[in-house]
UniProtKB/TrEMBL annotation:
Keyword Repeat: yes
Complexes and interactors: Interacts with CUL5 and RNF7.
Per-repeat ranges for ANK: 71-103, 137-169
Alphabetical keyword list: ANK repeat, Repeat, Signal, Ubl conjugation pathway
Highest classification ranks of the organism: Eukaryota, Metazoa, Chordata, Craniata, Vertebrata
GO process terms (BP): intracellular signal transduction; positive regulation of protein catabolic process; protein ubiquitination
Classification via InterPro entries: Ankyrin-SOCS_box_domain, Ankyrin_rpt, Ankyrin_rpt-contain_sf, SOCS_box, SOCS_box-like_dom_sf
Keyword Signal attached: yes
SMART domains, per the entry: ANK (SM00248), SOCS_box (SM00969)
Source organism: Oncorhynchus mykiss
Domain SOCS box, first and last residues per copy: 270-319
Signal peptide stretch: 1-20
Name the record gives this protein: Ankyrin repeat and SOCS box protein 12
Length: 325
């Protein structure tokens, strides 16, 4: 009796599958003849054919249509992930939706960053792509660029207003270490000093990998970036930058390491605890802190000041006057 019932259920299930496949085929026939052709053109990097197709209304209707094996994706997402710049430009010129998400909540910008396609990243940002990627994605373009050490891509993202610290909203939903770590911490651990400095220049918090005070208070023993750099044996350059960018040198508690590099870093920290910063350094931190507060950290280069001062504010050089203070 049981076996018969089981067979019947099984049979019904198979029947349902078949009808669903047929239904899907009908749908695809109706939709995807044109969409498929667009995808093919992008896949072949044939921007001329793509342009020709998109000049016809019949095809343009399918400019944002998702298709393809595995992850269904829009033609723009495909062009971005393959680094097919000219196709990407054609799609944008014909009005493709710039921030369409795939099933993993990845935007075309995010996939271009993953592929390290600088020109595609730039084209997407200029077309108005959200530099933060999607909030529903566990990772962000900035995190990816910081981890991979793509300093030019990172600069462009930040120039276009990307968030420089971890996104606290995501932090609440996931325990993934790479997310809670924050881009500053990732760039240190992966040894990308240039990215580390760029993040600090764009206002990354030098103390915690989280700027949400409420969230911070919920974490039992929040670790400072300084502390994590010491633990991971990051070079003394990282410690120096953190100090220069105003990290609180009194926060880290642990200091138990052996390597020489580590000792050098610890020594620097202890030295810094003994001597307060120079007044010019304090001024620089105060000015930068204020600009960050009013969201104008990117405007430093446009301040009405002698260029030597601006260079100092941007950590490019020490003005001669600072030597005498
Ligand atoms: C990206 O994040 C920053 C910082 O949270 C925010 O100010 C900016 O508006 C976001 N950009 C977009 C396009 O959502
Ligand atoms: C900072 O990153 C570390 C390492 O991933 C994590 O353990 C810690 O909870 C993070 N801190 C905050 C405040 O998010």
């Amino acid at each position: 009796m049981d076996i018969i019932a089981f067979m019947m259920v099984f049979f019904l299930l198979i029947l349902k599958q078949i009808s669903m496949i047929q239904f899907k085929e009908v749908l695809e026939e109706k939709d995807n003849g044109e969409g498929q052709l667009l995808h093919q053109a992008v896949s072949n990097n044939d921007d001329r054919l793509l342009d020709e197709l998109l000049s016809q209304e019949k095809y343009r209707k399918f400019i944002n249509c998702r298709s393809g094996w595995g992850i269904p994706r829009t033609p723009l997402r495909m062009a971005a992930s393959k680094g097919h710049l000219r196709c990407l430009q054609v799609l944008l010129a014909h009005g493709a939706e710039v921030d369409c998400l795939d099933v993993k909540a990845q935007t075309p910008l995010f996939t271009a960053v993953c592929g390290k396609y600088f020109n595609c990243v730039l084209a997407l940002l200029r077309a108005g792509a959200n530099p933060n990627g999607s909030l529903y994605n566990n990772c962000s373009p900035v995190l990816t660029a910081a981890r991979e050490g793509d300093v030019e891509i990172l600069k462009q993202l930040l120039k276009h207003g990307a968030e420089v610290n971890s996104r606290s909203k995501v932090l609440l939903f996931t325990s993934s270490a790479s997310v809670s770590s924050g881009p500053l911490y990732l760039s240190a651990v992966y040894g990308h000093l240039d990215c580390f400095k760029v993040l600090l220049l764009y206002g990354a918090d030098p103390n915690y990998n989280c700027t949400d005070a409420k969230l911070l208070s919920k974490i039992k023993q929040p670790k400072t970036v300084l502390e994590m750099c010491l633990r991971h044996g990051c070079g003394v350059e990282y410690i120096q930058l953190l100090i220069d960018f105003g990290a609180n040198v009194y926060l880290p508690t642990l200091i138990i390491e052996k390597s020489t590099k580590q000792n050098e870093a610890v020594e620097l920290l202890l030295q810094e605890r003994g001597f307060p910063k120079s007044l010019v350094s304090q001024c620089r931190l105060a000015i930068r802190g204020y600009l960050r507060k009013i969201n104008r950290i990117q405007s430093i280069d446009h301040l009405e000041m002698p260029s030597s001062m601006i260079n100092f504010l941007q950590y490019k050089s020490v003005p001669t006057i600072a030597m005498h203070l």
